[in-house]
Specification:
This protein is an alpha/beta fold. 46% of the residues lie in helices and 22% in strands. The protein has a single domain, classed as Rossmann fold.
Length: 193
């Protein structure tokens, strides 16, 4: 039986990590999604409990105090974090769990679970294309767009700290690459048990 793994997908905003994560989840019933908690305002297309657990700042800070988060970050004034209960539930069910988190959160998960986590960095083909993708989402104010771009340099400099790096220059190829990496990791973990 394969050993449960924490599969962590990260990269700068607009790199396509969420689209890739959703494709992976559709193709693999042995992997569940780690729904993160956040204090940011819910977007119109998002559903509480599916996209994020939208909670108050006070609730989030209480989860920090109670050590109920695997990782957490404050980004652009809002908290984001991964709940321990999500990992516990997946492991009890014998499933691997996929995280779609920011770069610093991914490195925190990898540090906390060194034997069980595999990290994948999704890299945009160019900064220009990344900027175009962010603009085309129409979800950013000029201020939030500028903040995201400031963070990109820091995130791109951390790509070498990940186990794998996949360039998303063609979405189908990137999905296939991530899928192949995950299958290889899960198969390798079942051979080691």
């Amino acid at each position: 039986m394969p050993r449960s793994k924490l599969i962590v997908i990260a990269g700068p905003s607009g790199c396509g990590k969420t689209t890739i994560a959703k494709a992976i989840l559709q193709n693999c019933s042995d992997i569940v999604f780690s729904v993160s908690a956040t204090t940011r305002i819910k977007r119109n297309v998002e559903i509480d409990g599916r996209d994020y657990f939208f909670i108050s700042r006070e609730e989030f800070e209480e989860k920090i105090r109670r050590d109920e988060l695997i990782e957490w970050e404050q980004i652009y004034g809002d908290y984001y974090g991964s709940l321990k209960r999500e990992v516990d539930n997946a492991f009890r069910a014998g499933k691997s769990i996929l995280f779609d988190v920011d770069v610093m959160g991914a490195l925190s998960v990898k540090k906390k679970y060194p034997a069980d986590a595999v990290s994948l960095f999704i890299k945009p083909p160019s900064l220009e294309l990344l900027m175009e993708r962010l603009k085309n989402r129409h979800t950013e104010t000029p201020e939030s767009f500028a903040r995201r771009l400031e963070r990109v340099t820091m995130e791109m400099n951390l790509a070498d700290d990940f186990d794998y790096c996949v360039v998303n220059d063609d979405l189908d190829s990137a999905i296939a690459s991530v899928d192949a990496i995950i299958k290889a990791v899960i198969l390798t973990s079942s051979d080691a048990v």
